[in-house]
Protein backbone atom coordinates (compact mmCIF):
# COMPACT_ATOMS: atom_id res chain seq x y z
CA UNK A 1 0.00 0.00 0.00
CA UNK A 2 1.26 3.48 -0.85
CA UNK A 3 0.22 6.54 1.14
CA UNK A 4 0.46 10.22 0.34
CA UNK A 5 0.47 10.99 4.06
CA UNK A 6 0.95 14.65 4.87
CA UNK A 7 4.37 15.78 6.11
CA UNK A 8 4.62 19.43 7.18
CA UNK A 9 7.77 20.25 5.19
CA UNK A 10 8.25 20.33 1.44
CA UNK A 11 6.08 19.69 -1.58
CA UNK A 12 4.83 16.14 -2.16
CA UNK A 13 6.78 14.47 -4.94
CA UNK A 14 9.68 16.94 -4.81
CA UNK A 15 12.97 16.29 -2.96
CA UNK A 16 13.99 18.78 -0.32
CA UNK A 17 16.38 21.59 -1.14
CA UNK A 18 18.34 23.79 1.23
CA UNK A 19 15.26 25.78 2.24
CA UNK A 20 13.32 22.68 3.29
CA UNK A 21 16.30 21.30 5.20
CA UNK A 22 16.70 24.61 7.00
CA UNK A 23 13.01 24.61 7.90
CA UNK A 24 13.30 21.05 9.17
CA UNK A 25 16.31 21.96 11.33
CA UNK A 26 14.51 24.98 12.77
CA UNK A 27 11.80 22.66 14.10
CA UNK A 28 14.26 20.48 16.04
CA UNK A 29 14.48 21.46 19.71
CA UNK A 30 16.89 20.34 22.40
CA UNK A 31 15.13 17.92 24.73
CA UNK A 32 17.95 16.47 26.82
CA UNK A 33 21.61 17.05 27.60
CA UNK A 34 24.57 15.25 26.08
CA UNK A 35 26.76 16.84 28.75
CA UNK A 36 24.65 15.63 31.67
CA UNK A 37 23.60 12.23 30.34
CA UNK A 38 26.73 11.10 28.52
CA UNK A 39 29.82 13.16 29.25
CA UNK A 40 29.39 12.98 33.04
CA UNK A 41 29.37 9.17 32.82
CA UNK A 42 32.44 9.18 30.58
CA UNK A 43 34.20 11.42 33.09
CA UNK A 44 33.55 8.83 35.82
CA UNK A 45 35.36 6.25 33.73
CA UNK A 46 38.57 8.24 33.26
CA UNK A 47 40.17 6.69 36.34
CA UNK A 48 39.81 3.18 34.89
CA UNK A 49 40.04 3.64 31.12
CA UNK A 50 41.70 5.85 28.57
CA UNK A 51 39.22 8.37 27.21
CA UNK A 52 40.15 9.71 23.79
CA UNK A 53 38.57 12.63 21.98
CA UNK A 54 38.30 11.64 18.34
CA UNK A 55 36.53 14.67 16.94
CA UNK A 56 34.40 17.73 17.51
CA UNK A 57 31.18 18.73 15.81
CA UNK A 58 30.60 22.45 15.41
CA UNK A 59 26.87 22.78 14.83
CA UNK A 60 26.46 26.49 15.52
CA UNK A 61 24.21 27.97 16.68
CA UNK A 62 23.16 24.76 18.45
CA UNK A 63 26.55 24.15 20.03
CA UNK A 64 29.86 22.34 19.81
CA UNK A 65 29.91 18.62 20.56
CA UNK A 66 33.16 16.83 21.47
CA UNK A 67 33.22 13.15 20.47
CA UNK A 68 34.73 10.68 22.93
CA UNK A 69 35.60 7.00 22.94
CA UNK A 70 36.47 4.79 25.90
CA UNK A 71 39.56 2.64 25.38
CA UNK A 72 41.18 -0.18 27.32
CA UNK A 73 43.98 1.22 29.46
CA UNK A 74 45.97 -2.02 29.19
CA UNK A 75 45.82 -2.02 25.38
CA UNK A 76 47.91 -4.88 23.96
CA UNK A 77 48.48 -5.05 20.22
CA UNK A 78 48.85 -8.83 20.51
CA UNK A 79 45.20 -9.11 21.53
CA UNK A 80 42.13 -8.87 19.31
CA UNK A 81 39.89 -5.82 19.43
CA UNK A 82 36.18 -5.40 20.13
CA UNK A 83 34.38 -2.28 18.92
CA UNK A 84 31.12 -1.19 20.58
CA UNK A 85 29.18 1.72 19.10
CA UNK A 86 26.00 3.41 20.27
CA UNK A 87 23.99 6.47 19.43
CA UNK A 88 24.70 6.41 15.70
CA UNK A 89 21.04 7.35 15.61
CA UNK A 90 20.89 9.79 18.49
CA UNK A 91 17.26 9.14 19.35
CA UNK A 92 17.88 5.45 20.07
CA UNK A 93 18.39 5.91 23.78
CA UNK A 94 19.30 2.42 24.99
CA UNK A 95 22.11 2.23 22.44
CA UNK A 96 23.83 5.12 24.18
CA UNK A 97 23.11 4.06 27.75
CA UNK A 98 23.66 0.39 27.04
CA UNK A 99 27.16 1.15 25.73
CA UNK A 100 27.91 3.28 28.78
CA UNK A 101 26.57 0.64 31.18
CA UNK A 102 28.68 -2.03 29.50
CA UNK A 103 31.78 0.13 29.90
CA UNK A 104 30.99 1.00 33.50
CA UNK A 105 29.92 -2.44 34.74
CA UNK A 106 31.50 -5.10 32.54
CA UNK A 107 34.42 -3.83 30.47
CA UNK A 108 37.00 -4.34 33.23
CA UNK A 109 36.23 -8.06 33.21
CA UNK A 110 37.72 -8.36 29.73
CA UNK A 111 41.11 -6.87 30.66
CA UNK A 112 43.97 -8.95 29.31
CA UNK A 113 41.70 -10.90 26.97
CA UNK A 114 40.59 -8.35 24.39
CA UNK A 115 41.11 -4.67 23.64
CA UNK A 116 37.92 -2.64 23.94
CA UNK A 117 36.98 0.53 22.09
CA UNK A 118 33.56 1.96 23.00
CA UNK A 119 32.07 4.97 21.18
CA UNK A 120 28.85 5.41 23.17
CA UNK A 121 27.26 8.41 21.46
CA UNK A 122 28.28 8.85 17.83
CA UNK A 123 25.57 11.45 17.12
CA UNK A 124 25.25 13.82 20.10
CA UNK A 125 23.22 16.49 18.27
CA UNK A 126 20.68 13.81 17.40
CA UNK A 127 20.80 12.52 20.98
CA UNK A 128 19.82 15.91 22.37
CA UNK A 129 17.02 16.39 19.85
CA UNK A 130 15.88 12.76 19.92
CA UNK A 131 16.29 12.47 16.18
CA UNK A 132 17.61 10.00 13.65
CA UNK A 133 19.43 12.54 11.47
CA UNK A 134 22.17 15.08 12.02
CA UNK A 135 21.40 18.81 11.57
CA UNK A 136 22.01 18.56 7.82
CA UNK A 137 19.10 16.07 7.56
CA UNK A 138 21.63 13.31 6.85
CA UNK A 139 21.33 9.81 8.33
CA UNK A 140 24.73 8.95 9.87
CA UNK A 141 23.95 5.24 9.58
CA UNK A 142 23.85 5.40 5.79
CA UNK A 143 27.01 7.47 5.64
CA UNK A 144 29.92 5.20 6.61
CA UNK A 145 31.65 5.50 3.25
CA UNK A 146 34.43 7.49 1.63
CA UNK A 147 33.69 11.21 1.39
CA UNK A 148 30.97 10.75 4.00
CA UNK A 149 28.39 13.55 4.07
CA UNK A 150 28.03 13.10 7.85
CA UNK A 151 30.71 14.52 10.13
CA UNK A 152 29.77 12.00 12.82
CA UNK A 153 30.41 9.06 10.52
CA UNK A 154 33.63 10.47 9.10
CA UNK A 155 35.04 11.06 12.59
CA UNK A 156 34.30 7.50 13.72
CA UNK A 157 35.77 6.07 10.53
CA UNK A 158 38.98 7.99 11.15
CA UNK A 159 39.12 6.72 14.75
CA UNK A 160 38.60 3.12 13.71
CA UNK A 161 40.81 3.12 10.59
CA UNK A 162 43.96 1.78 12.33
CA UNK A 163 41.91 -1.09 13.78
CA UNK A 164 39.90 -1.95 10.69
CA UNK A 165 41.76 -5.19 9.98
CA UNK A 166 42.44 -6.05 13.63
CA UNK A 167 38.92 -5.98 15.01
CA UNK A 168 37.49 -9.36 15.90
CA UNK A 169 33.97 -8.23 16.77
CA UNK A 170 31.85 -5.10 16.32
CA UNK A 171 28.42 -4.68 17.84
CA UNK A 172 26.43 -1.57 16.92
CA UNK A 173 23.58 -0.75 19.31
CA UNK A 174 20.27 0.50 17.91
CA UNK A 175 16.52 0.65 18.55
CA UNK A 176 13.43 0.32 16.38
CA UNK A 177 10.74 2.63 17.76
CA UNK A 178 7.14 3.55 17.05
CA UNK A 179 8.40 6.95 15.90
CA UNK A 180 10.18 5.21 13.02
CA UNK A 181 6.75 4.80 11.49
CA UNK A 182 5.12 8.01 12.72
CA UNK A 183 7.99 10.46 12.11
CA UNK A 184 11.25 9.22 10.67
CA UNK A 185 10.08 7.17 7.70
CA UNK A 186 7.55 9.84 6.66
CA UNK A 187 10.31 12.45 6.96
CA UNK A 188 12.62 10.33 4.81
CA UNK A 189 9.95 9.93 2.16
CA UNK A 190 9.31 13.69 2.16
CA UNK A 191 13.03 14.48 1.97
CA UNK A 192 13.48 12.22 -1.02
CA UNK A 193 10.26 13.32 -2.75
CA UNK A 194 8.79 9.83 -2.50
CA UNK A 195 5.37 8.61 -1.44
CA UNK A 196 5.33 7.20 2.08
CA UNK A 197 4.77 3.45 2.25
CA UNK A 198 3.55 2.40 5.71
CA UNK A 199 5.24 -0.53 7.41
CA UNK A 200 4.94 -2.53 10.60
CA UNK A 201 6.99 -2.04 13.75
CA UNK A 202 8.04 -5.38 15.29
CA UNK A 203 7.37 -5.93 18.98
CA UNK A 204 10.64 -7.13 20.43
CA UNK A 205 14.39 -7.37 20.06
CA UNK A 206 16.04 -8.50 16.84
CA UNK A 207 19.46 -8.47 15.17
CA UNK A 208 20.71 -7.49 11.75
CA UNK A 209 23.45 -9.76 10.38
CA UNK A 210 25.73 -8.88 7.45
CA UNK A 211 24.40 -10.58 4.31
CA UNK A 212 27.92 -10.38 2.83
CA UNK A 213 29.51 -12.02 5.89
CA UNK A 214 26.77 -13.97 7.65
CA UNK A 215 27.60 -15.50 11.02
CA UNK A 216 24.42 -17.35 12.02
CA UNK A 217 25.87 -19.17 15.03
CA UNK A 218 27.17 -15.87 16.42
CA UNK A 219 23.82 -14.13 15.92
CA UNK A 220 21.94 -16.93 17.66
CA UNK A 221 24.29 -16.79 20.65
CA UNK A 222 23.49 -13.10 21.04
CA UNK A 223 19.74 -13.68 20.65
CA UNK A 224 19.84 -16.46 23.26
CA UNK A 225 21.53 -14.15 25.77
CA UNK A 226 19.13 -11.28 25.16
CA UNK A 227 16.10 -13.58 25.37
CA UNK A 228 16.86 -13.96 29.07
CA UNK A 229 16.34 -10.21 29.46
CA UNK A 230 13.57 -9.28 27.03
CA UNK A 231 11.39 -10.82 24.33
CA UNK A 232 12.47 -11.46 20.75
CA UNK A 233 10.49 -10.01 17.85
CA UNK A 234 8.46 -12.51 15.84
CA UNK A 235 8.21 -12.43 12.06
CA UNK A 236 5.17 -10.70 10.59
CA UNK A 237 2.56 -12.40 8.40
CA UNK A 238 4.98 -12.26 5.45
CA UNK A 239 7.80 -13.91 7.40
CA UNK A 240 9.61 -10.58 7.61
CA UNK A 241 10.82 -7.96 10.06
CA UNK A 242 10.76 -4.35 8.76
CA UNK A 243 10.45 -5.67 5.22
CA UNK A 244 13.36 -8.14 5.33
CA UNK A 245 13.04 -11.93 5.46
CA UNK A 246 13.66 -13.49 8.86
CA UNK A 247 16.60 -15.86 8.32
CA UNK A 248 16.64 -17.26 11.87
CA UNK A 249 14.98 -16.60 15.22
CA UNK A 250 15.16 -12.82 15.65
CA UNK A 251 17.60 -12.24 12.78
CA UNK A 252 17.41 -10.43 9.44
CA UNK A 253 20.23 -9.45 7.08
CA UNK A 254 21.50 -6.28 5.38
CA UNK A 255 24.66 -5.72 3.29
CA UNK A 256 26.52 -3.56 5.79
CA UNK A 257 29.25 -2.03 3.65
CA UNK A 258 27.10 -1.48 0.56
CA UNK A 259 24.53 0.43 2.62
CA UNK A 260 27.16 2.48 4.45
CA UNK A 261 26.12 1.09 7.84
CA UNK A 262 28.19 1.55 10.97
CA UNK A 263 28.41 -2.20 11.56
CA UNK A 264 30.46 -2.44 8.34
CA UNK A 265 33.09 0.08 9.39
CA UNK A 266 35.67 -2.65 10.16
CA UNK A 267 36.57 -5.97 8.60
CA UNK A 268 35.71 -7.83 11.79
CA UNK A 269 34.58 -11.42 11.38
CA UNK A 270 31.77 -11.06 13.91
CA UNK A 271 29.47 -8.09 13.36
CA UNK A 272 25.89 -7.32 14.25
CA UNK A 273 23.41 -4.50 14.72
CA UNK A 274 21.06 -4.77 17.68
CA UNK A 275 17.49 -3.49 17.51
CA UNK A 276 15.71 -3.04 20.84
CA UNK A 277 12.01 -2.10 20.96
CA UNK A 278 11.56 0.45 23.78
CA UNK A 279 7.87 1.14 23.06
CA UNK A 280 6.73 -2.36 23.95
CA UNK A 281 4.37 -2.63 26.93
CA UNK A 282 6.47 -5.64 27.90
CA UNK A 283 9.78 -3.75 28.19
CA UNK A 284 11.01 -1.01 30.54
CA UNK A 285 13.89 1.41 29.85
CA UNK A 286 15.98 -0.61 32.30
CA UNK A 287 15.26 -3.80 30.36
CA UNK A 288 16.20 -2.12 27.11
CA UNK A 289 19.56 -1.01 28.50
CA UNK A 290 20.09 -4.48 29.99
CA UNK A 291 19.30 -6.10 26.63
CA UNK A 292 21.99 -4.01 24.96
CA UNK A 293 24.51 -4.92 27.65
CA UNK A 294 23.63 -8.62 27.40
CA UNK A 295 24.09 -8.44 23.62
CA UNK A 296 27.52 -6.84 23.93
CA UNK A 297 28.75 -9.37 26.49
CA UNK A 298 27.40 -12.32 24.50
CA UNK A 299 28.98 -11.04 21.30
CA UNK A 300 32.40 -10.62 22.86
CA UNK A 301 32.20 -13.91 24.77
CA UNK A 302 31.29 -15.83 21.61
CA UNK A 303 34.06 -14.21 19.57
CA UNK A 304 36.68 -14.90 22.24
CA UNK A 305 35.59 -18.51 22.74
CA UNK A 306 35.74 -19.26 19.03
CA UNK A 307 39.06 -17.52 18.61
CA UNK A 308 40.51 -19.56 21.47
CA UNK A 309 39.16 -22.78 19.95
CA UNK A 310 40.76 -21.91 16.62
CA UNK A 311 44.11 -21.14 18.26
CA UNK A 312 44.04 -24.46 20.14
CA UNK A 313 43.15 -26.35 16.98
CA UNK A 314 46.01 -24.69 15.12
CA UNK A 315 48.46 -25.66 17.91
CA UNK A 316 47.33 -29.28 18.20
CA UNK A 317 49.64 -32.06 16.88
CA UNK A 318 46.94 -33.13 14.42
CA UNK A 319 47.03 -29.67 12.79
CA UNK A 320 50.59 -30.23 11.66
CA UNK A 321 50.17 -33.84 10.58
UniProtKB/TrEMBL annotation:
Claim: Metal-binding is one of the keywords in the record: yes
Coiled-coil stretches: none
Membrane spanning residue stretches: none
GO BP terms, alphabetized: proteolysis
Domain annotation Peptidase M14: ranges: 30-321
Gene3D superfamilies: Zn peptidases
Entries under Pfam families matching the protein: AstE_AspA_cat (PF24827)
Keyword Protein biosynthesis: no
Alphabetical list of CDD domains matching this protein: M14_REP34-like (cd06231)
Protein name in the entry: Succinylglutamate desuccinylase / Aspartoacylase family protein
Amino acid sequence: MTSHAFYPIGTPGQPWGDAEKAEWRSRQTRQRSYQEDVLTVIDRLRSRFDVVQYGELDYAPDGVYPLFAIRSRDWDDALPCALVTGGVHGYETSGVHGALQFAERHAAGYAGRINLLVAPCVSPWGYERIHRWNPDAVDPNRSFREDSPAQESAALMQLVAPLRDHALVHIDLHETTDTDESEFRPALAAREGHAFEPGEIPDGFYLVDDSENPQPEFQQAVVAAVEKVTHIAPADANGEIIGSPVVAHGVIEYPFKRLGLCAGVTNARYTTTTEVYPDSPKASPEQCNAAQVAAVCAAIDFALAHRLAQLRAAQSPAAGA
